[in-house]
């Protein structure tokens, strides 16, 4: 992208601000620099697909801001102190450290770039205690029996982020009503130590933070708006009048049967469980298939569709790469020199760039970007021109055209985090392997069934060959006849209805009749050859 275009896009980038409840032009506090703080996980178990959506959404925002040439400081924290960790009967800090590492591994699998910083609450105890002291000195918090509570009555704008009235709030909805509080909605900044929990010394006695203290540009799931982010806003404002959050950005829930996916409801799937059966790239594609602020309902059908889409995209790009391989050295030498590109290719490029910029600059809209018309027109252009490209021996406008369209497709995928870090051949093989896992088959099983089908076709047993194809399709394995060879690819499982079974029965019956007919003909021929039939009299009518 040209520098002028980049600056233009910066001015046009609009983002929804949960504080104003409107989509606003994004303008960072410091021109050219962006600080983004995203609430991470409470590390006491493996993360589920709902956590994955938040991570992927803000990873795309991070990538897009970098694409717009901003200098981005991206911070995503770990809450490594929590009551839930202690409830599991393991050393809380050991447990949280283990699951912090597991989360990092999950994020790597999903193709998320590592944030600039990944602080843990336990690493910043002195900062937290200093901030609590400052809040108390400002008259906005009070100590009682080793706890320190924030006095919401001292925060005149409490409720501005969530839109809730103070009288409607009940103790932040995270802790039980405590009669020691001045107001039931007051929330803990510091909790007195309990037996068996890790604790730190403080002016108020041994304890730990009740709420981790953070202030920056904030992001997280929509369930964090209240009470979590509302309370963060109140405490940071109480600590310093200079505290400022420019944008509050929240992603929608992942639902299961229209209910929010959560560990408390037990209706969740961990990231590990999902990527055992589905490659992380189509999982990421699924997580970006809706606008980030809308709920996303988790269904197997949608991830199956994303897997099929991913196969088509990466197969097209692999074919493109193979066909362009004889020209790669000359393409590299041409660099940024002006080259002649076919009109149709230029149209594809322009439309794809326009759709990409229009969607992402308008509140980071990733929905239908890789399944939309413009993206697929670019892939179609590549596919339709691969055959004539194979006949090219010299550099030509066609070579430059296909290379340019391919690069633009890869550019879109890169910003969405959907460009593989390995070769296309490797990712296609990985997609095959996941398809075999879902089908409950091994590669040799598919090879054997293909051989059986080939044999059935040679013997005109089309009912058998159709049944093999249909059975595999029902398991998400599509057979394709390419000349004399049959290959397979992953597909959305095809549900066989009663008519499919009936048609198979008809084909089998026809096959049986055809076989009977040929046997009958052979017997007749054999009788004639051996003289068992008197041809001179057999067809004469009796007088």
UniProtKB/TrEMBL annotation:
CC terms in the record's Gene Ontology section: cytoplasm
Family recorded in the similarity comment: Belongs to the class-I aminoacyl-tRNA synthetase family.
Residue span, tRNA synthetases class I catalytic domain: 26-307
GO molecular function: ATP binding; cysteine-tRNA ligase activity; metal ion binding
Record's keyword terms, sorted: Aminoacyl-tRNA synthetase, ATP-binding, Ligase, Metal-binding, Nucleotide-binding, Protein biosynthesis, Zinc
Matches recorded under InterPro entries: Cys-tRNA-ligase, Cys-tRNA/MSH_ligase, Rossmann-like_a/b/a_fold, tRNA-synt_1_cat_dom, tRNAsynth_Ia_anticodon-bd
Signal sequence bounds: none
GO biological process per UniProt: cysteinyl-tRNA aminoacylation
Enzyme Commission number(s) of this protein: 6.1.1.16
Cofactor(s) essential for the protein: Zn(2+)
Protein name, as recorded: cysteine--tRNA ligase
Entries under PANTHER family matching the protein: CYSTEINE--TRNA LIGASE 1, CYTOPLASMIC-RELATED (PTHR10890:SF26), CYSTEINYL-TRNA SYNTHETASE (PTHR10890)
Species this protein is from: Linum tenue
């Amino acid at each position: 992208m040209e520098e002028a275009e980049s600056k233009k896009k910066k001015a046009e980038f609009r983002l929804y601000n949960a504080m104003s409840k409107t989509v606003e032009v994004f303008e960072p506090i410091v021109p050219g620099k962006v600080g983004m703080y995203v609430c991470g996980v409470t590390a006491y178990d493996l993360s589920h697909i709902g956590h994955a959506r938040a991570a992927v959404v803000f990873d795309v925002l991070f990538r897009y801001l970098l694409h717009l040439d901003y200098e981005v400081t991206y911070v995503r924290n770990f809450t490594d102190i929590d009551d839930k960790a202690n409830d599991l009967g393991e050393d809380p800090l050991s447990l949280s450290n283990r699951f912090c590492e597991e989360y990092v591994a999950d994020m790597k699998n999903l193709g998320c770039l590592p944030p600039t910083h990944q602080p843990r609450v336990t690493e910043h105890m002195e900062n937290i205690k200093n901030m609590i002291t400052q809040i108390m000195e400002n008259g906005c918090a009070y100590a009682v029996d080793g706890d320190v509570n924030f006095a919401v009555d001292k925060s005149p704008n409490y409720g501005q982020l969530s839109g809730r009235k103070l009288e409607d709030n009940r103790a932040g909805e995270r802790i039980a009503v405590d009669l020691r509080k001045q107001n039931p909605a007051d929330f803990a900044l510091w909790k007195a130590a309990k037996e068996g929990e890790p604790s730190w010394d403080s002016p108020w006695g041994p304890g730990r933070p009740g709420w981790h203290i953070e202030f920056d540009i904030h992001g997280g799931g929509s369930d964090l708006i209240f009470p979590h982010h509302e309370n963060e806003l109140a405490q940071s404002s109480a600590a310093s009048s200079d505290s400022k959050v420019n944008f509050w950005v929240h992603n929608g829930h992942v639902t299961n049967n229209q209910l929010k996916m959560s560990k408390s409801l037990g209706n969740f799937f961990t990231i590990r469980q999902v990527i055992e059966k589905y490659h992380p790239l189509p999982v990421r594609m699924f997580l970006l298939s809706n606008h980030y602020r809308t709920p996303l309902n988790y269904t197997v059908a949608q991830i199956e569709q994303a897997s099929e889409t991913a196969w088509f995209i990466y197969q097209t790009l692999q074919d493109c790469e193979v066909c362009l391989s004889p020209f790669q050295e000359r393409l590299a030498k041409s660099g940024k020199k002006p080259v002649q590109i076919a009109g149709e290719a230029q149209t594809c490029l322009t439309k794809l760039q326009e759709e990409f910029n229009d969607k992402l600059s308008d509140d980071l809209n990733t929905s239908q970007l890789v399944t939309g018309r413009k993206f697929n027109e670019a892939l179609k252009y590549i596919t339709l021109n691969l055959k004539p490209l194979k006949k090219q021996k010299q550099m030509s406008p066609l070579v430059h055209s296909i290379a340019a369209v391919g690069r633009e497709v890869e550019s879109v995928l890169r910003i969405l985090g959907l460009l593989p870090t390995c070769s296309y051949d490797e990712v296609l093989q990985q997609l095959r392997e996941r398809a075999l896992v879902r089908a409950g088959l091994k590669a040799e099983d598919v090879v054997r069934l293909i051989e059986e089908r080939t044999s059935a076709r040679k013997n005109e047993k089309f009912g058998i060959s159709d049944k093999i194809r249909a059975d595999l399709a029902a398991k998400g394995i599509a057979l394709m006849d390419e000349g004399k060879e049959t290959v397979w690819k992953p597909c959305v499982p095809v549900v066989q209805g009663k008519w499919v079974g009936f048609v198979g029965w008809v084909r089998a019956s026809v096959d049986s009749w055809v076989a009977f007919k040929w046997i009958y003909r052979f017997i007749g021929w054999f009788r004639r050859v051996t003289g068992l039939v008197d041809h001179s009299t057999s067809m004469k009518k009796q007088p």
